Amino acid sequence: FAQSEATEEFLQMMNDLFDIFNSRNLRQKFYKRPINPDNYESVLCKLEECKEYLLNLKFENGQLVVRSNRKTGVLGFLINIESLKMLYQDICDKEQILPYVPLYQISQDHLEIFFGCIRAFGRQNNNPTVRQFKAAFKRLLLRTEIKGATTGNCIALDDIPILNATYTITTRGSNK
User: Fold this and answer.
1) Can you give the pTM of this predicted structure?
2) Are 168 and 176 within 8 A, CB to CB?
3) Do 35 and 88 fall within a single domain?
4) Residue of higher predicted confidence among 21 and 165
5) What is d(CA 37, CA 96) in angstroms, rounded to the nearest whole number?
6) pLDDT score at 146
7) Are residues 25 and 74 in the same domain?
8) pLDDT, tens digit, for every residue of 70-84?
9) 123 and 66 in one domain?
10) Helix or strand or coil: residue 97?
11) Using CA atoms, how far apart are residues 94 and 75, in angstroms rounded to an integer?
């Protein structure tokens, strides 16, 4: 493919960003591995490289994408890059709450699957009324795990408990 270098560079940057933002377990390699103390410097370096690339990305007419009316996607990536850096600092460096940041666990996929389940309750109508939405939402809240449909914007790669309900009986001043 002649003169495809710019496209190749764009695709490689986007691939690396998607790998970083979809990281899930420490046994994975390269940018698919969640950000942790062992790979923090290399991931940070790649994030900065991607940030610079996105900030300087131009249309054929020379206009910067971030200065155009079509900047939404690029701004989303830039915000995610900065958010990831701050998130890692807060939960891994400062507070040491987690040893790594599994970004897949906080991705939008789980919301997509949840709302796909709500749409599935409508059978032929995937645009539920308020009444149908409330009924589907209540039914989904009673389940401990949500199983996604096989069609839709994304598919579940693992079972994520969204809401767990417990039953507690209270008797005069004590919980049982």
Assistant:
1) 0.65
2) yes
3) yes
4) 21
5) 11
6) 47
7) yes
8) 989 899 899 989 998
9) no
10) coil
11) 27
